[in-house]
Amino acid sequence: MSRGWSNAGNALGVVAAVAVSGALLPITAAEGSPAPGGNGTAQAPVAFPGAEGFGAQATGGRGGEIYHVTNLDDSGPGSFRDAVSEGPRIVVFDVGGYIELAEPLHVASDITIAGQTAPGEGVATRGYQVSFSDSSNVIVRYMRFRHGLTPDQNRDAVTMDGASNIVFDHVSASWGRDENFSINNSTNVTVQHSIISEGLDPHSCGGLVQSDGVTLSHNLYIHNKTRNPKSKGRLQFVNSVIYNWGSDGYILGDSAGISNANAEGNYFIAGPSTTGDPFTRANANYQIYAAGNYFDGDVNGQVDGRETTDEDLGPATIMDEPFDFPPVTVQTAQEAYDTVVAGAGASLSRDAIDTRLVNDVINQTGAIITDPESIGGFGSLEGGTPPADADGDGMPDDWETAEGLNPDDAADAADTDASGYSNIERYVNGLVA
User: Fold this and answer.
1) Does residue 93 lie within any of the structural domains?
2) Is residue 42 within 8 Å of 418, Cβ to Cβ?
3) What pTM was estimated for this model as a whole?
4) Of 114, 128, 154, 334, whose CB is crowded by the most CB atoms within 10 A?
5) Per-residue b/e over 246-269, b at no fewer than 16 CB within 10 Å?
6) CATH code at position 268
7) E-strand stretches of 245-365
């Protein structure tokens, strides 16, 4: 449940805050500024333009503090861990590079993580799990979460249990020791335009998706031996590319519980490590509407697959009509392949790891791995210089000037226009429009 917009401390206006190096400085919006989601005439917008599916209505940190991540430390003022420790907050980055975690990290409720604001090549966590368990109302965009062979840490790279109303967009999650990206016992979650890659053998799993209302759209599952994903509950699986799985691609329940799924326009492409079928382990409890899915199993360097049939779904219960799930954009499988190759993952500035993965899809190369060092390790992410922001409101001075705002008035970040988005949201969304 979102805490929304706070009026604490100001009966007439809206109180927000700016964080510089982790210190929160109170700012007061102009009297009468409308609350996010509209002023009685504008309808509350989706999380950001292009957000779709079950998690699209998340508002994240809309109306909350603006927190600047000013260092790559594991903890303390200005760190990413401190930034996501409580909400409502909109988190922006003044630094790019790897955040070396010293222990697992938990993201609180009512948070927007605007990874697209990181200068240079962007930002990533490494070494430990990032969890969203029991949190609600979170927006995550253009982040990389990389686990690796951290001793005594047999965990997912990204995980959630008991979460709700969360949307991940253009995220890269890799090198999980258990799963790469798991969504359990959760509701209203979207993962879109993301890369879920290289679960580490001997487990090597894309992820468990066992929840009531998950949308997986335009994602790349690559080099995961199994669980691409393993799904139970209610799932939209749309326009994703699944490449070089091992024994299992998409697992249809394998459960005594009833599951309802729409699977549309996905492309399953076998690779050098593939031994199993695209759809596996179904039973009659798995009710699925499947349309426009393709399977290319010959590893001939070309994308020239065939459309899958009811026989590929095994003993699953085949539905004639799709389930009534939230609307999503549905392309053909070939169009989806092109879209995923062009833009999945933290692609505002693709790093060497994601570039290698996408090239593996294009060239039908690569393998399931045990150790990230075997394919070059974490590499580096170059930082950069953030744009000048005199009032610390997360919006650069030149952008504010061009928009008719005051670069010396932090309060205008909270002002909301007829679209329902605040000015800070318009800025961060515009970086990746």
Assistant:
1) no
2) yes
3) 0.90
4) 114
5) bbbbbbbbbbeeebbbbbbbbbbb
6) 2.160.20.10
7) 250-252, 259-264, 267-269, 279-280, 286-291, 294-296, 306-307, 317-318
> At residue 274, what is the residue type?
T
- Please tell me the distance from the alpha carbon of residue 319 to that of residue 298, in angstroms, as a whole number: 29
Separate counts of helices (H) and strands (E) for the chain: 5, 28
Q: Is residue 220 within 8 Å of residue 357, measured between CB atoms? A: yes
Is 356 annotated as catalytic?
Answer: no
Judged by phi (left if over 0) then psi (alpha if -120 to 50, else beta), residue 147 lies in: alpha
**265 lies in a domain?**
yes
Percent of the chain with pLDDT over 90: 88
Residue type, 246: G
Look up residue 116 and give its DSSP letter: G
Give the model's confidence band at 43: pLDDT under 50 very low, under 70 low, under 90 confident, else very high. Answer: low
The order of strands in the sheet holding 220-222 is 97-100, 123-126, 144-146, 172-174, 195-197, 220-222, 241-243, 267-269, 294-296, 306-307
Indicate which residue of 62, 89, 141, 227 is catalytic: 227
For residue 321, give its domain range: 141-375
Q: For residue 310, what pLDDT band results from cuts at 50, 70 and 90? A: very high
Sign for the CA dihedral angle at 278, 283, 288, 290 comes to: positive
Q: Tell me: pLDDT of 20 over 80.
A: no
Which helix H or strand E contains 342, and what residues bound it?
Answer: helix 333-343
The tally of domains found in the chain comes to: 1
Check pLDDT > 80 for residue 111: yes
Mean pLDDT (whole number) for 196-213: 97
- For residue 10, pLDDT over 80 is answered with no
For the chain, give the number of residues. Answer: 433
